[in-house]
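This part of the workshop introduces the protein records we will be handling. Backbone structure tokens are a discrete shorthand for how the chain folds in space. Once this layout is familiar, the rest of the handout is easier to follow. The record below serves as our worked example for the rest of this section.
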Amino acid sequence: MALASSTVAAISIATSVAGTAIGALGAYQQSKAAKAQAEYQAQVARNNATIAQQDKAALLERSKIAEQDHRQRIAQTISSARSAAAANGFLVDGDDDETNVLLTADLAEAGELDILRMRDETSLRARNLDVAAMNAESQAGLFQARADAESPLFAAGSTLLEGAARTAGAAYSSGMFSGSTSSSGSSYRNPLAGTSVGRRYGLNSPSGF
């Protein structure tokens, strides 16, 4: 026996309500997952920024030690040159135009040029680490903003409201709320009136009572 159109409408609306509830739960879980992922990415970016800053500090410390070691090697080289010159009968403290004095000056100048090149390389690498840290901080800010924009409760509430609006529209379109008027002045039609289910449970009255 075919179901009455009102019964079909009631089943359809019940299905719509259930679908809305499931959709709201899904929206909540999806927004919650997106929020957690964005927060995780923001934390990873902040960690990358911290690592870049730590790498810069370590680089500067190593550069300082390397410069000190290089100066020590320069001093040792000059000392060895002076010793060799003295062993060969050259004056090591002669006039400024003496060959050995000029050689010592050349060694010192070459050593200083090496140190300047070391400083330039360190400065470039430190600047690159600064840029990496700033980029990571920017990414962290973007990810955090994305996480803050996610609201699982709002997503679920919006889905519920949209579903409720669709369900109400479907109910009114099906004529469920049209029919006889009760003593209070409101209109209601029992969707089970006239069906086998209604007859079985004594719900054949249009008002349901």
The two ends are 24 Å apart (CA to CA). The CA atoms of residues 43 and 93 lie 63 Å apart. The longest helix spans residues 5-87. The chain has four helices and no strands.
